[in-house]
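for the recovery benchmark. tokens below, seq after
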């Protein structure tokens, strides 16, 4: 019988075994950074002849592509089972594995929402000069099924991107400096530790506060560290003790970041009050003038909840669009008024009405 998942905990073992013990539909988001199956052979040398530490770890080795595909099908199928119906999954990979992973995900029924390119301004060069410098990895973002609900904090991401719609190419440096976990001899603890900014974008865009995020290939716990910072819960699975110990130390030292971003304040739907209701509740009155913020334009509130400017009568949205010479606009963002001796946006009156439970 599957047991309840222990939150904010790292399970040690093979994810194929541990995932089987988790109940159906129990996690809100999955971030998976599986073995790449790099298939590298021999030593990689820099131009100065020194050895480059790439991904040559035992955990990345598979006997054949078939073996890698079978492994991928098994963990992805288990992930799909434990994902809530309105949850989502992100899988990251490089050219060696991401096409195989994407094919398998589609066959299992996941529905691709985007593929995001993680572009690395400080990528490792192609030392031999035999190919282009490989300077990106791909993240596949899927909902559980075609048409399934999923969570996307669109406005939060737009805000993070200087008020422009965020694109599917993310420029983020590879993990270096103080963020890179090192052992007592100054050697990298993990060959593929991901940058926290990458997980910040993933988690902030597709979860809500206190959601549970599963990472079946936890490594040094980048997912856990960012989940904690953003006031979300994590559950990790990892085989290697050395990575688990490093992840625990790292997560213990993380502080929750307090900001409007982590509460997804930009994406919270405004309280549902109409102009007519605000009049009925006494926050606005019939005949009252409401203004553009700079007071250059104004309209008067009508009894039916529309507004009129002496020429036309329409909704606050159409009236604000007319003033701005646009085809449409959000009137709640445009109009301001006098309220109790203060100049406030009419939008703030909706929040006030909600706070007071709809009564003045
Ligand atoms: C690409 S790394 C993940 C790195 C991680 N995202 C980070 O930022 O540190 C993949 C990790 O999966 C672990 N791993 C590989 N096969 C596994 C399996 N079958 N079950 C659990 N963990 C596994 C490896 O030990 C390795 O740490």
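predicted aa per position
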């Amino acid at each position: 019988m599957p047991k309840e998942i222990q939150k904010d905990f790292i399970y040690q073992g093979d994810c194929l075994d541990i995932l089987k013990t988790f109940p159906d539909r129990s996690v809100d988001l999955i971030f998976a950074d599986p073995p790449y199956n790099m298939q590298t052979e021999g030593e990689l040398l820099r131009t100065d002849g020194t050895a480059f530490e790439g991904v040559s770890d035992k955990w990345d080795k598979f006997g054949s592509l078939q073996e890698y595909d079978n492994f991928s099908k098994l963990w992805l199928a288990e992930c799909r089972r434990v994902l809530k119906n309105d949850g989502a999954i992100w899988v990251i990979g490089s050219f060696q594995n991401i096409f195989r992973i994407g094919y398998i995900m589609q066959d299992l029924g996941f529905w691709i929402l985007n593929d995001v390119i993680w572009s690395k301004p400080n990528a490792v060069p192609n030392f031999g000069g035999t190919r282009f410098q490989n300077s990106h990895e791909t993240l596949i973002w899927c909902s559980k099924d075609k048409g399934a609900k999923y969570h996307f904090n669109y406005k939060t991401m737009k805000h993070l991107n200087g008020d422009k719609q965020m694109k599917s190419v993310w420029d983020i440096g590879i993990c270096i400096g103080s963020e890179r976990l090192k052992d007592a001899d100054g050697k990298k603890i993990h060959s593929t530790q991901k940058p926290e900014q990458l997980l910040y974008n993933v988690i902030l865009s597709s979860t809500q506060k206190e959601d549970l995020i599963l990472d079946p290939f936890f490594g040094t716990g980048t997912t856990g560290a960012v989940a904690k910072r953003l006031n979300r819960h994590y559950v990790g699975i990892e085989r290697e003790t050395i990575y688990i110990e490093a992840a625990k130390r790292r997560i213990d030292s993380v502080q929750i970041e307090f900001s409007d971003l982590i509460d997804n304040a930009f994406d919270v739907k405004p309280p549902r009050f109409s102009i007519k209701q605000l009049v009925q509740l006494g926050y606005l009155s019939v005949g009252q003038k409401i203004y553009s913020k700079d007071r250059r334009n104004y309209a008067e509130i009508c009894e039916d909840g529309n507004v009129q400017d002496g020429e036309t009568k329409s909704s606050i949205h159409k009236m604000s669009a007319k003033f701005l010479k646009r085809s449409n606009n959000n009137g709640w963002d445009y109009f301001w008024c006098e309220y109790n001796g203060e100049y406030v946006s009419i939008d703030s009156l909706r929040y006030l009405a909600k706070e007071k439970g709809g009564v003045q």
